[in-house]
Specification:
Strand content: 5-15%
Radius of gyration: 24 Å
Number of strands: 7
Order of helices and strands: EEHHHHEEHHHHHHEHEEH
Helix content: 40-55%
Structural class: mainly alpha
Distance between the termini: 62 Å
Number of helices: 12
Largest sheet: 3 strands, antiparallel
Low-confidence stretches: 1-10
Length: 303
């Protein structure tokens, strides 16, 4: 279906129809236009190539077309959408919100059944509908082993859960698994958490925190533990990585134990276990393993 209207002898794009279209080449144009809702320069060369693969016309030609339609205007060396484009940008934003609201319960249903493979399949199908292969709110494209890692969280038995009742521990593992599957972490509101979990976690909150903060950081630590274990096991069994570097934030919430190891490299078999059990900050240990890639010369010299 064409969304060109002939108006006074000129071709005019129908932005509202493009925003509602099921044709990815149509709504990709609206998504690109939405990137200029706030003033910005053109995308870098790599991003332009990505856009050009999905757009009906190359990136530069598409922006020129937007200008001719009166949807995009220059502001110095930056560009911004005009008032004429705002109505169908709103239509597109509402569409994206509805699609997200529809897919998340489907993923949760699969996770409740502990079917992480199905949950990942649902996520991949959702991502495939996005012009650049992922939504702007979730994480990067997951690896093949992603669903298996998410599944580990659901069956995790770790000291991070010590002292918690089974219902609260199970809820935290589900919370962590959902965020891990999407590759992004978000804080729930108190209204989104079971009352019993709120009551159990509230006493663990320190100054400046509440039960929702405790839940967020505990779930984050569970997911990070699984990812760290996967990194360690993969490097331990490989031939091309001999060392791991411990990386992570160094801020007011970083404890002395974590700060001692940040930036240091260890042989894989001698890397300290993460998370640091001695970490006593309110956000917990946020350290992770980063494989140290070696040059071909380094690899050859060790054989």
């Amino acid at each position: 279906m064409s969304f060109l209207r002939t108006l006074f002898g000129r071709s005019k794009l129908d932005g509202a129809a493009m925003a509602r279209s099921t044709n990815i080449a149509d709504y990709a144009q609206i998504e690109l236009l939405a990137a200029f809702r706030t003033p910005r320069t053109h995308h870098d060369a790599s991003d332009q190539q990505q856009w050009s693969r999905i757009l009906p016309h190359p990136y530069a030609e598409t922006l020129a077309l937007f200008q001719k339609q009166g949807w995009l205007a220059a502001q110095g060396n930056q560009w911004q959408v005009t008032a004429a484009a705002l109505p169908f940008l709103q239509i597109y934003a509402e569409r994206l919100a509805a699609e997200r609201a529809a897919v998340m319960p489907k993923v949760r249903t699969a996770l409740v059944a502990k079917d992480t493979s199905e949950a990942l399949t649902i996520r991949r199908a959702y991502d495939a509908q996005q012009p650049l292969g992922k939504a702007d709110w979730n994480g990067p494209e997951p690896q093949m082993s992603h669903s298996a890692l998410t599944r580990r969280i659901l069956f995790l038995n770790h000291w991070l859960l010590d002292g918690l009742s089974k219902p609260t521990a199970d809820w935290l593992k589900f919370y962590a698994a959902e965020q891990h599957l999407w590759g992004v972490y978000w804080k729930l509101s108190a209204a989104d958490m079971p009352a019993a979990v709120l009551a159990e976690l509230a006493p663990l909150a320190e100054s400046g925190m509440d039960a929702t903060d405790v839940a967020y950081w505990k779930a984050y630590q569970l997911a990070l533990y699984v990812d760290n274990q996967e990194t360690w096991q993969r490097c331990k069994g490989g031939d091309h990585v001999r060392r791991l570097e411990i990386v992570g934030p160094d801020d007011e919430y970083t404890c002395a134990q974590c700060r001692q190891t940040l930036g240091k490299q260890f042989l894989v078999v001698r890397a300290p276990e993460l998370p640091h059990k001695e970490c006593n900050t309110i956000r917990g240990c946020r350290c992770r393993y980063e494989p140290v890639l070696e040059s071909y010369e380094d690899i050859a010299s060790n054989h």
